[in-house]
C-alpha cells in the first residue's frame, strides 16, 4: 500500500471559518474560534493520520493589512504557508469578492500546486446566490477547484478531506503517527485563556493581550498551571480584572473547564495580570511570545 503525506495550508480573510474547518478535520479543538477578527495569531499545525496517509493541516492568521509590528509578524506566518504547501486551501465565504492583499492573491492564482477554493457558509445562502458566487470565483481563480461547504454544519467537509488525500504526494509520514499538533501544551493553555478574553471583552482589550504560561506541572491526576495575562496599559489591567476580580474569575473558570476537556485531567489554574508596555510593537517581546521566528 502506497503511503501519502503532505502539508495542506489554509489561508483566507479573517472570520472566514479556517479554524472551524481545521478543527473539523482534526476532530479536536486546536484552533480557537470566536466571531472577532484576528483570532488566530500563529500558524498552527493539526495532524490527521490514517493507515496510508498523514495530512498536516496548517491554520494561518486571516489576511489583513498590518497596522503594527504584531500584525506584520502574523502576516509572515501566512507568507510561510506558501513555502511548504503540497495543497493550498483558499477559503472564502458567501458574499466575499476579494482577498485583502493583492500580492497574496497573485500567489494563489499563480500557484503551481493544487488549489482548492472552498466557498464557506453556504448554509447562509440560497441556490441563486451560490451559483453566482461559484461563477465569480471560477473567473477570479481559474486554477482552483471550487467546492461549496459549511464548515460549521459539516456539509461537504468529508468530501474536501477525501479530495485532499487524493491530491497528496506519495511520501512517508513527517511526524510520529500519534502526534496531533506541532505545538506544546503551554501554547493551548495560552490560546484557551486568550479565547475567553476575546469572547468577554470589547474594543481594543483582546488585541492588547498576550498570555504567558510560566508554570506547567503535570501530576498523575491534576495539572497545575500558572499563567500571566499581559496587557499594554494600567487601565487595561483594571478592565481585565474587573470589579472585585469578577471578570478575571470568569475567564479562569471557563478556561479551566475547556482545558480539563482537552487534557482529560483536573486543572488547577492560577491567573495573574501584568502590564507589559507596548509589547505589540516591541521586536524582543514579540520574539519571546513566538512571533518573528
UniProtKB/TrEMBL annotation:
The keyword Membrane applies. The keyword Cell membrane applies. Its main location: cytoplasm. GTP binds at residues 12-19, 59-63, 120-123. Residues 120-123 are annotated as: G4. Gene3D superfamilies: 3.30.300.20, P-loop containing nucleotide triphosphate hydrolases. Residues 12-19 are annotated as: G1. GO terms for cellular component: cytosol; plasma membrane. InterPro entries: G_ERA_dom (IPR030388), GTP-bd (IPR006073), GTPase_Era-like (IPR005662), KH_dom-like_a/b (IPR015946), KH_dom_type_2 (IPR004044), KH_sf_prok-type (IPR009019), P-loop_NTPase (IPR027417), Small_GTP-bd (IPR005225). Keywords: Cell membrane, Cytoplasm, GTP-binding, Membrane, Nucleotide-binding, Ribosome biogenesis, RNA-binding, rRNA-binding. Residues 201-277 form the KH type-2 domain. Residues 38-42 are annotated as: G2. It is a peripheral membrane protein. Residues 59-62 are annotated as: G3. GO terms for molecular function: GTP binding; GTPase activity; ribosomal small subunit binding; small ribosomal subunit rRNA binding. It is found in: Cytoplasm; Cell membrane. It comes from the Bacteria. GO terms for biological process: ribosomal small subunit assembly. Monomer. An essential GTPase that binds both GDP and GTP, with rapid nucleotide exchange. Plays a role in 16S rRNA processing and 30S ribosomal subunit biogenesis and possibly also in cell cycle regulation and energy metabolism. Belongs to the TRAFAC class TrmE-Era-EngA-EngB-Septin-like GTPase superfamily. Era GTPase family. PANTHER family: GTPASE ERA, GTPASE ERA, MITOCHONDRIAL. This is GTPase Era. It comes from Olleya aquimaris.
Amino acid at each position: 500500500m502506497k503511503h501519502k503525506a503532505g502539508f495542506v495550508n489554509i489561508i483566507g480573510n479573517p472570520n472566514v471559518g479556517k479554524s472551524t474547518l481545521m478543527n473539523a478535520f482534526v476532530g479536536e479543538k486546536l484552533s480557537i474560534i470566536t466571531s472577532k477578527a484576528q483570532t488566530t495569531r500563529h500558524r498552527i499545525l493539526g495532524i490527521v493520520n490514517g493507515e496510508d496517509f498523514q495530512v498536516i493541516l496548517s491554520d494561518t492568521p486571516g489576511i489583513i493589512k498590518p497596522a503594527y509590528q504584531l500584525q506584520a509578524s502574523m502576516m509572515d506566518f501566512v507568507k510561510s504557508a506558501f513555502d511548504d504547501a503540497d495543497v493550498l486551501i483558499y477559503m472564502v465565504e458567501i458574499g466575499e469578492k476579494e482577498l485583502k492583499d493583492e500580492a497574496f492573491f497573485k500567489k494563489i492564482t499563480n500557484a503551481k500546486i493544487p488549489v482548492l477554493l472552498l466557498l464557506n457558509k453556504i448554509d447562509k445562502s440560497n441556490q441563486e446566490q451560490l451559483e453566482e458566487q461559484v461563477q465569480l470565483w471560477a473567473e477570479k481563480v481559474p486554477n482552483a477547484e471550487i467546492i461549496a461547504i459549511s464548515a460549521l454544519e459539516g456539509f461537504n467537509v468529508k468530501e474536501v478531506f477525501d479530495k485532499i488525500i487524493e491530491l497528496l504526494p506519495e511520501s512517508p509520514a513527517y511526524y510520529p503517527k500519534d502526534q496531533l499538533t506541532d505545538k506544546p501544551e503551554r501554547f493551548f493553555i495560552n490560546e484557551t485563556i486568550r479565547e475567553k478574553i476575546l469572547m468577554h471583552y470589547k474594543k481594543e482589550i483582546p488585541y492588547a493581550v498576550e498570555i504567558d504560561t510560566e508554570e506547567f506541572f503535570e501530576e498523575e491526576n491534576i495539572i497545575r498551571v500558572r499563567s500571566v495575562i499581559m496587557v499594554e496599559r494600567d487601565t487595561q489591567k483594571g478592565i481585565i480584572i474587573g470589579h472585585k476580580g469578577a471578570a478575571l474569575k470568569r475567564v479562569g473558570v471557563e478556561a479551566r473547564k475547556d482545558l480539563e476537556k482537552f487534557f482529560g485531567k483536573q486543572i488547577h489554574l492560577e491567573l495573574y495580570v501584568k502590564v507589559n508596555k507596548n509589547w505589540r510593537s516591541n521586536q524582543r517581546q514579540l520574539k519571546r511570545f513566538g512571533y518573528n521566528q
